[in-house]
Structure formats: C-alpha cells, structure tokens
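tool_call: predict_structure(chain=1)
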Amino acid sequence: MGDRPKGEFSATAQHMSMLQATIGSKRASESWLYSYKRSFNGFVAKLTEEEKTKIASLEGVVSVFPSTKKQLHTTRSWDFMGFPVTAERRKTESDVIVGMLDSGIWPESPSFDDKDFGAPPTKWKGSCQSSSNFTCNNKIIGAKYYHSEGPINPPSIPSPRDSGGHGSHTASTAAGGLVYGANLYDADILAAFDDAIADGVDIISISVGGFFPSDYFTDPIAIGAFHAMKNGILTSNSAGNSGPSSASIVNFSPWSLSVAASTIDRKFLTNVQLGNDESYVGVSVNTFVLENGSYPLVYGGNVPNTAGGYDNSTSRYCVADSLDPKLVEGTIVLCDGLNDAEPAAAVGAAGTIMHDDYFTDFAFSFPLPASYLGDDDGSKVYNYINGTSKPTATILKSVEVNETLAPFVVSFSSRGPNPITADILKPDLTAPGVDILAAWSEANTMTGYPEDPRVVQYNIISGTSMSCPHASGAAAYVKSFNPTWSPSAIKSALMTTGNFDFSREFLLVPESLFFS
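tool_result:
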C-alpha cells in the first residue's frame, strides 16, 4: 500500500486502469473488489497466480499479497497498573478518539454509557453505520462493519454489533470513543485502517494477528500501522498468544506498540474433591454449583464411543464425538490434556477434570463445571478412579485468591526476538492480560458454546488481546496531556516510564502515566 498521490485523484479509476492494462477489461471488472482511497493507495482484487505476478512486476507496485484470515488474540487491572480511582484528568481528554479494530461492539453494555460525555470532537469525520438496532452515542461516536467477500457465517451479522464478545471486551478495557472495524480478513483490516486514519482517530488499538510472522511489506497490520504513524496516529497491537516459544511474536513492526500479556495480583482456583476426601486445586473460572454434591467419576479412556468408531487412544483426550453418551451422561469425566470441554458437555457430562503438564498460570471458562490440574495431581485422580470400585468427585465453585508473584509475563504471551529485524527488540512492553473482567456481548454465551446456559454482561478472559487495550488506553491518556506528541514520543513515554522489577523475570509494567 503506497501513499495517496497529491492533488485530484480517483483511486478506483487508477486501479481499474491498471487491471485493464494487465489482465484485460472484462477480467478487470470481474476481479476488482475494493479500493483504499482515503488514507493510502491500494486495492483488493481476485487474481490468479499468473495475474498476481504481472501486477507485482509493474512499476510503482510495492507489494501484492493474499487476503488471509487473522485470529483474535483472547476491573482490577487498571488499579494494578497504578491508575488511582479518580485519576487526574485534562479537559482535552474528551477530545482523544481511540479506534478499535475488532469483532464489533455491544452498545447496550453499561461500559459504553455516555453519561457526562459531551458531543463528539469537531475533528471527528466518521459516521455510525446504523443497522440491526445498532446506534451510537457520545461515547461510541462511530461504528463501521467490513466484509469484503464470502458468506457471513452465523452467529455473525452484517452489522457493527458484536456477536462474539471479543470486541466488546477489548473496547471496554480501552474505554475510548470508538470507530469499529470488524472482521478478520486482511482486506477488511486495511479498509478499517484506511477509514480510521481519515476519520481522525488519535490511537488505533488492534488485538488480532496472523498465525505466522510476515515481512513488513505483506503484513496488513504493519502496513496499516505505518500509514497511521505517518498521519500522527499510534497503533497499539497484541504480541500474540503463541508463547512461550522464542520468536513467536506476530505483531512487531518498528512503528507500532507491541504489547505482551502479564498477570495481575489475583487468580482463580477451583478445587476438585474426591470421594476418598482427597482434594486437589486446579485453575478455571467456574461459576457453576453442582447441586447434587458428588457425582460418579469416570476416565475418558475407559468410556470410548465404540459405536462411533473411537477407542481409548482418542477418548482419553475427550475430543468431539469420542465419548460414549450412555457412559458419560451425569458423570464427571477425567480427560488427558487441556480442551474446551465442549465434547463432554455435548454428551451430558456433569463436569470435567483436565490435566497435563502445560502451564497453569491463567484460567479458562468452560461450558460446564470444570477444573484444570497439573499432571501430578491429574495422575492421582486417575489412580483413584482405577483403584476404586465406585469413584466419585465434585467440583467446587472457583475462589479468587491473591497472586503474590504478580506481575510476570504469562506463559501464552508470544516472545521475541523480532523474527524479521533482530536488532529491533520486541515486544515493547507488557500490560495486564490474564483473567481480565470486561464487557461481553449478550448475543453469545459466556464461553461461546450453545451448551453453556450463561449469558453475561461481563466476562473474564485472558490473552494479549486483553493487554493491548490496556496499553491503548494508557496511550490515549498520555495523548490527552500532550496532544502534540508524535506516536514515537507517546510510545517512548510508555516504555521509559515502565518499571522493571529485577526480582522477577520479564517484568515491564507502566508505573507512572502522568505528564505535564
């Protein structure tokens, strides 16, 4: 994506002319999909490999790359970062606009109430794409839906309304006025950048990324962030959730703020009590109460769905369709490895206990009572099942406890070094991204699975998706005190005022964000 030519310029006409000269008029009209024309110069087209090569060889073409799908990187956290309950404010703060590029927003959430908010800043040039009973207000000042091609799969809807929860969660964390770019395809992400820059946002927050690193010329997030930077806008993006392997970071452009995820001073523990009075502490966010107390306890490897062609080599992991419904219904099932527990819920299990040797430094929510144990404790539960004629267990409701080691970079957070430019260190900083409570879409269940009966206004989830908007909100706060600062100055302020605690590994947490 290049700069817009100066003077009068018709992007669509230029792009169609380029296509016609290269692949012919008829083919050009069939292949062209969309032109970027508000903030930078580029277009989307359906091309064969041969046509792609021809276009790439033209003078003035910077890069040609496929539109691939990106993944979403999924309270006390602001207090933990050092913000007081009544933080010092500047009048200019209400003029700072944060653009969220994500999966949408649930406008009815109390987090987006515009009480005491004035009219949108006069610099705002965006609009509100009203549909599906979606309306903006003085906090959500704009919203736009993007979908370049292909079918819209339920529960998604052609609207800025969030049907999944991720976008509402990140937006309520950043707590800014919003322009919303929804969807995860490269073509749509670039369209959202194009609009956000032209609409006058001050900070862009994007909690999505690729599955693998890309070079700067073919990474749409790096390209969009570059043009944002040229227009005085800082882009804050999530580092990725592929840790703890080295060089696993996926958003690392030098001109953006790359944010890792760290813990805060709380964690959620879920006790498993066996019929022999032994108790083991696992991790999960379990809001369920097992009304009948203890339930029969079975091991997934002992209850395979043989009628469906499965044996214990598969059922031990409790994967989809591998468990025998007749043997699992009404029981608590022990599973090897960590999974989403949906297969156990689908066949009527009362609960599930999972175990392996992965990390237990963050908690998941599951569609039924569940707890995740380390391998040693899981093996003890396994031995109890095999050594008892009628094993039973219960799973208690989660309790919140103090995390005395916090903050530390969580296991799933993608690490550096920068896989493309080794001498530019990435990530830039870390922010709270573990067990974060924020707004959720009421169009979805708490876990996203239909078996889950819980619909909530707020949800607790983890990811660099959650840490990124913390940094975005901090950047917006700095911008409100220093409206003339460049993206580099804001980024530098956040990085150089962070605190490194040498008693703990990998710690960099913003400590002071007050500037004059």
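agent: The chain has three domains: 11-56, 71-261+407-510, 267-400. Proceeding to next step.
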